[in-house]
């Protein structure tokens, strides 16, 4: 990889996270965990991040406001929502 390709890749990555940059640390953590995992429920996110469920709920709502994540109902349990990163 040439230097210009590496710089372009870094700029793409920074543009990708631009919407997350000004959000609270909890939202950034939830976004990063979703970056490593394809799709997780709210309870799985709480387990992975070690954050309280209430904090995860707040982080998810902030991420949804910024259109950073996608959410859909789980087919196996309609009471749960599945979250994935959209950026």
Automatic annotation (TrEMBL):
User: Looking at the Swiss-Prot or TrEMBL record, what is one Pfam family this protein matches?
Assistant: HTH_24
Reading the lineage from the top rank, the first entry is: Archaea
Q: List residues traversing the bilayer.
A: none
**Where is coiled-coil annotated?**
none
Q: What is this protein called?
A: Transcriptional regulator, ArsR family
What organism does the UniProt record list as the source? Halorubrum aquaticum
């Amino acid at each position: 990889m040439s230097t210009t390709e590496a710089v372009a890749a870094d700029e793409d990555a920074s543009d990708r996270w631009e919407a997350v940059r000004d959000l609270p640390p909890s939202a950034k953590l939830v976004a990063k965990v979703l970056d490593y995992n394809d799709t997780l429920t709210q309870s799985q996110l709480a387990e992975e991040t070690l954050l309280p469920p209430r904090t995860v709920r707040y982080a998810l709502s902030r991420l949804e406001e910024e259109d950073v994540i996608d959410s859909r109902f789980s087919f196996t349990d309609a009471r749960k929502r599945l979250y994935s990163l959209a950026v």
